[in-house]
Amino acid sequence: MIDIVALRTLVALDALGSVTATADSLGYTPAAVSHQLQKLSRYLGAPVTERTGRGISLTPMGRELSSRGAQILHDLEGIESEARARSGDPRGRITVGGFSTGIRGLLVPALPRLRAAAPELTVTNVESDPDELVEMVSAGRIDAALIFDWNSSVLRLPSTLTSEVIAVDRADIVMHRDHHLADRAEVTRSDLVGEVFVSAPRGAVCHRWLVALFEDLASEPRVEYWAVEYDTQVEFSRSVGALALVPRLGRPHLPADVTAVPLDDPSIARSIHVVWRRSMTNSPAIAVLRKEMQAIAGEFEGSDG
């Protein structure tokens, strides 16, 4: 019978394209990945990979086996989830992905609750952008992920994944207390035209959303400073007076000379979803993860940020 570990290695290689990425994804060494592929080739009596330049690619038989093997692994995961659901006890190990403020604001506070509710369950995490997280869940590299989309846009997921909204997170305009807009109860998007901003890098989800705020104003944000982390954006606001669009969830502590002014439109918000593979829907581990993060999300929304 084909070894499941070797099959999983082949499927991961097909999805990720390199031995190094496959090793990182599965927690193996590159040598262990090569060993699993060689073992599979020996068992089948024909190679499943071949050299292509400095790397390797799948042979026609390897591609066929990967395609069919991915469905087999999906079915096995479903069987395992259903079996564990009968016991009702969350146990084992799951890896949860998330964006930085989602991890800080939802996953981290949920961990003590998860330890109390499911002492036999180990939860680890990875941090990445929403697009990458969806690929990681779909490929089986992680078990679930927190992702977000802005302004209730349609969340597009592969058919093998499912999701639910667990929080709606408004964003405010962070600015120095000496800024001429700082004494407003709210600001409009028109108020922001011509103002200097600090933003996440071009192409990042949060930068795209900042640009979208100005689309129907026939304008673009005047971005003069760039920073990935919200903590750094807050420092730009404090030091040089730049404005920053900063969500409330997981927001860093604001210095005394910095304030957050709400936008006048409450629909300008991001929806936060937890995403998992459909084959794990019956998993007690996924169920308790969703329950405890929903509880944290409810407390966050009840506090109004």
Write the topology of this structure.
Blueprint: H1 4-16, H2 19-26, H3 30-44, E1 49-52, E2 55-58, H4 60-87, E3 92-98, H5 100-117, E4 121-127, H6 130-138, E5 144-150, E6 161-176, E7 196-199, H7 205-212, E8 222-226, H8 230-240, E9 244-247, E10 258-262, E11 269-277, H9 284-302
Parallel strand pairs: 3-4, 3-5, 7-8
Antiparallel strand pairs: 1-2, 5-11, 6-9, 6-10, 6-11
Helix pairs in contact: 1-2, 1-3, 1-4, 2-3, 5-9
What's the short version?
The protein is an alpha/beta fold and 305 residues long. This is LysR family transcriptional regulator.
Could you characterize what this model shows?
- This protein has 305 residues and is an alpha/beta fold.
- Helices cover 42% and strands 24% of the residues.
- The strands form three sheets. Strands 3, 4, 5, 6, 9, 10 and 11 form a seven-stranded mixed beta sheet that branches.
- α1 (4-16) packs across α2, α1 crosses α3 and α2 (19-26) packs across α3 (30-44).
- It is elongated and about 75 Å long.
- The N and C termini lie far apart (54 Å).
- Keywords: DNA-binding, Transcription, Transcription regulation.
- Residues 2-59 form the HTH lysR-type domain.
